[in-house]
Amino acid sequence: MAKILFALTNHPKDKTGWETGCYLLEVAVPFLYLKKNGFEIDFVSPLGGEVPVKVCDTKDPKLQAFFSDEDARGRFYHTKSSNEIIPDDYEAIFFPGGHGVMYDIVNNKELTQIARRIYENHGVVCAVCHGGAGLLNIKLSDGSYLIHGKKLTAFSNNEEEAIGTDSKVPFLLESALKEKGAQFSSVANWQSHVVVDGRLITGQNPASDLTMAKELVKALQRSK
Fold first, then answer.
1. Do the bridges between strand 3-7 and strand 40-45 make them parallel or antiparallel, or are there none, so unpaired?
2. Given 130, 174, 193, 215, the catalytic residue
3. Most buried in the list 58, 132, 170, 172, measured by CB within 10 Å?
């Protein structure tokens, strides 16, 4: 059974008390789809253990399905720390969103090295929404940034402004990705948009999480 690693944030709030955390639907929707298609999933976070969740609608049927899955619940509440991860065990790594990623995962050397190893082992690297921050500092063995020259998407500056968080985030993700040489594209706010560039798969926002998961399955099936 092929294994996929989900890299989740441990960051709950910024210094002002603004809630960051993990956006749970971007974990739940891909998890359920990937598991249904026969993949095994592990969760890792910078500190290990429980992951802070941004306030969400617990009555959402997708979240209820996720938490009714004993395996999903157990792995989510007891994430592995990076030193427990053997990168060669995984065929893909996925960075879900939530503003917390912009605080801890973005500069986490262990997770970026895990992602580099998976990618250079001919694995797939994926991100949705603010999970794109996890891509910013992945350097390949030749010293180049993984995203340099790559086509990708993530939560856009327009979407950040639309929800009033452009003045709260430590940086604007779209702008940061472009500064690292990425070929960024986006569509209208809240519309699904997924970009596939070789073994890099990215989704713009929460509406893109299922399509991204479907593209990941296709990519892993092609590699067999």
1. parallel
2. 130
3. 132
Is 129 catalytic? The answer is: yes
Residue with tokens 């500056």: 157
Q: Where are the domains of the chain?
A: 3-222
- One-letter identity of residue 9: T
* Active-site hit among 26, 91, 160, 174: 160
Nearest to 180, CA basis, from 141, 148, 143, 132: 148
191-214 tens-digit pLDDT = 999 999 999 999 999 999 999 999
Tens-digit pLDDT profile for residues 145-165: 999 999 999 999 999 999 999
**pTM of the predicted model as reported, rounded to 2 decimal places:** 0.98
Phi, psi of 3 (to 5 degrees): -115, 140
Contacts of 204 (CB under 8 A, 6+ apart): 128, 129, 153, 154, 155, 156, 159, 186, 187, 191, 192, 193, 194
Map residue 208 onto helix, strand or coil.
helix
Looking at the domain that runs over 3-222, which CATH code has it been given?
A: 3.40.50.880
160 catalytic? Reply is: yes
Burial of 57 (0-12, 13-18, 19+ CB in 10 A): exposed
